[in-house]
Amino acid sequence: MAMRIDIPATTPTRAITAVTSILWEDMVNSPIKEGYGEFINKRKIQYAEKMIRSAFVELYKGLGLLKTY
Question: Where's the SPX domain (predicted)?
Answer without folding.
Answer: 7-69
